[in-house]
Amino acid sequence: MSLLLLQLFNGISVSSILLLVALGLAITFGLMNIINMAHGELIMIGAYTAYMTQQFFQKYVPEAYFDAYFLASIPLAFALAFGIGWLLETLLVRHLYKRPLDSLIATWGVSLILQQLARTIFGAPNKAVKAPSWLEGGITLTNELILPYKRLFIIGLVALCLVVIYLYLYRSRGGRNMRAAMQNRQMAACLGVSTRRLDAQAFAFGSGIAGIAGCAIALLGPIGPALGTYYIVDAFMVVVLGGIGKLVGSLFGALSIGVLNTAFEYATSATVAKVIVFTLIIAFLQWKPSGLVSVRSRSLD
Amino acid sequence: MNNPPMPDARPRFKRTRPVPAPERAEGALLRAKIALTLTIVALLLAAPYFLSEFRLSLLGKYLAFAILAIGIDLIWGYTGILSLGHGVFFGLGAYCMAMHLKLAASGGQLPDFMSWSGVEKLPWFWEPFASPWFALLAAIGVPTALAAALGYLTFRNRIRGAFFSILSQALVIVTVTLFIGQQGFTGGTNGLTNFDSFLGIKLSEPATKIGLYYAAVLLLGIVYALGRFAVGSRFGRVLTAIRDGENRVRFLGYNPVAYKVFVFAVSGALAGLAGILFVMMEGIISPAQMNIVPSIEMVLWVAIGGRGTLSGAVFGALLTNCAKTYFSESYPEGWLFFLGGLFVIVVLFLPRGIAGLWSDGIRWLSTRRDRHDKRSSDSGRNAEGGASASAG
C-alpha cells in the first residue's frame, strides 16, 4: 500500500515538472502557432543559472547564507530565460508566425546552437548542483514511505507557479487579451489588442517558466548540455494529449503521462513503459483527436 | 506621320524574337537542368576511378541518404506533412538487414552480443532472418508497415501539422529507448556490427564496395525516375493539393487520408531501402543513427536542397553530407553551431533551398541577358524610328 502511495507521489512529482515545461509550450503553440524546439534549452539555461548562483554564493557570500542560494536562483533563472526568450522572439520567431513547421526547424537550429554554446562554456561533463541543507531529508510517514523535501518543494513551487499563471490568465487584463488572441486573433486585434506585443510577452513568459523548471530539475540530479532534450518530447506529448488553449488540459495531460509513466515503469521496465505510454496516447487520440480539453471552434481552413 | 512608333514596332519586335522572355527563361532553366543532370550522372558513374576507397564508400552512403531524402521530400515537400521520425524507418530497415548479416557472420552460432547479455537461445523473431530474401523483404516491409499504421491512426483523425510531427518524434524516442533497453535482442547502445558477407560475397573486398556503390547509384536513379513520374502525374497534383488546402481536396470528393497514408508508407519504404544500403556499406547500425538528431538532420537535407523539388532533395542530401564531413573533420567542435545556423538561415532566408536559389539564378541570368539584348535592339529601333521620323 505504502509502496503504491510512494509510486503515486513520485508520479506526481514527475508530472509537476512536466507541467511546468509544457505550460510554456502550450502557450506559445496555442497563441502563436509556434513549435519552440529550443524550449528544452531554456530549461537548461535555468538549470545552469542555479549552478552559477551556487558557485557565486560559494565564493562571495558568507557560509551562513549559502542555503539561500536556491531561493535566489529561481527569480534569476526566470529573468534570464525571460530575457533570452524575448530576444529569440524578436530576432527569429516573429518571422515565422503562420509557418509552424518552419518554426519547428528554425528553433531546433537555435536549440543546437545553445547546446553547443553550453558545451563550450561549461564543458561537456555534467555538473552537480548541491541541494540546500533545508531540503535534505524528508517526511517519514511509515518505514517505507518517505517523502523527500526536495520533491515536496518542487510540487509546491509548481503549484505556486500554476496559481500565478491562473491569476494572470483568468484574472488580469493581459491574460484576458491573451486568451482572446488565442481564440480569434483577428477579432482580438480588431478590438484593440496589440497582438504583436502580446506575442513577445507570451513567448518570454513561457520561456521564463521553463527557466524555473530548469531550477527544479537541477535539484533532482546532475545537469548537462543535453538536459532539455530529455524533457522536451515528453512535454510536447503533454501538449498533444492535453489539448491546446486551456490550463486544465495541460494539467491533466501532465498528470496522466507522469503517473502512467512511473506506474508502468514500476510494473515493467523503463523502456517498455515508454512504449506503453506512447501506444496509449495514440489510442487515446483515436477517441479524442484534439486532446483532453480543447477550445471548440468552427474554423476549418 | 504622327502615329506613335510602338504599334508597328511591336510586331517587328515579335518577328525578330519569336520566344517571349519568360518562356525563354524557362527554356534556359531546362537546358541548365539537363546539362547539370548529365554532369552529375557522369561524375557519379566515373567516381570509382578517381576517389579513394574510403571516399567512395562515403559517397555511396550519401547516395543512400539521397534516396531517403526523396522519400522525405515526397511526404514533406509535396504533401506538406513534416515527419521527424524517418530515422526510425531508416534504422528499422538497417536493423532488419543487419540481423541477417549478423546471423550470416556468426555461422549458425548464437550472435556474440546475445551470449554476452545472457540470452541462451535465438529469439523467435530472429529466426526467419537467416534467409537473406526474408531480411531484404522485411527491411522494406517493416518500415512500410509501421509508417502505414502510424499514418493511418493519425491521419484518420485529422491529426496533422505540428501534432503529427511531435507524434513522429515521440516514435523516435520510444523506438530508441526500446532498442537500447532490449540489449539481448538488439545489441543495445552498440548496435549490430562485425558483419562478414552477404550471399557469400565478402563485404570488405574492394570490388564489393564498388559494386555496392554502383548499386546505390542505380537505385537512386530508379527511385528518382519513379518519383519524377509520380509527382508529374495526377497523383502528384492531388498531393500538392492536399498540402495547399486539405479540406478543399476533401470537399472535391477525394479521400486525403488514403493518399497521405500511401505517401507516408512509400516514404517509409524508401527510408528502409536507404537503411539496407547504409548497413551494407557502413558495416554497423546502432540506435545513435536513428535518434532525434539524425532524424531531424534528414529533414534538413531536404530543406537545404529545396523542398518540393526532387532534385533539390538529392542535392541537399549530397551537399549537406559533404559539408558535414568536411566540417566535422576540420572543426569537430563547430559542427553543431554550423548545423544550427544552417537551419535558421535556410528557414528564414531560403525557404525554397538551393534548388530555389538555382532556378531563380538561372532565370535572373537569362532575363538579364534578355533585357540586355532588348536594350540594344531598343536603341537600334529608336535610331530607326528617328530616321523614319526625320524622313517623314
From TrEMBL, chain A:
How is this protein situated with respect to the membrane? Multi-pass membrane protein
Please give the chief subcellular localization of this protein.
Answer: membrane
InterPro entries recorded = ABC_transp_permease, ABC_UrtB_bac, BCAA_transport_permease
- List the transmembrane segments: 12-31, 38-57, 69-88, 100-118, 152-170, 202-224, 230-254, 266-287
Which keywords label this protein?
Answer: Amino-acid transport, Cell membrane, Membrane, Transmembrane, Transmembrane helix, Transport
- Which chain positions lie within coiled-coil regions? none
Q: Where in the cell is it found?
A: Cell membrane
Endpoints of the signal sequence: none
| Top-level division of the source organism's lineage | Bacteria
Similarity section: Belongs to the binding-protein-dependent transport system permease family. LivHM subfamily.
The protein depicted here goes by the name Urea ABC transporter permease subunit UrtB
TrEMBL record, chain B:
Span list, region Disordered: 1-20, 372-392
CDD domains with a match to the protein in the record: TM_PBP1_LivM_like (cd06581)
InterPro entries assigned to the protein according to its UniProt record, in alphabetical order: ABC_transp_permease, ABC_transptr_urea_perm_UrtC, LivM-like
By its UniProt entry, which Pfam families does this protein fall under?
BPD_transp_2 (PF02653)
Q: Which chain regions cross the lipid bilayer?
A: 34-51, 63-81, 130-155, 162-181, 212-231, 257-279, 299-323, 335-358
- The answer to whether the entry has keyword Cell membrane is yes
Q: Which domain of life is it from?
A: Bacteria
Topology in the lipid bilayer: Multi-pass membrane protein
- What protein name does the entry list? Urea ABC transporter permease subunit UrtC
Can you name the source organism? Paenibacillus thermoaerophilus
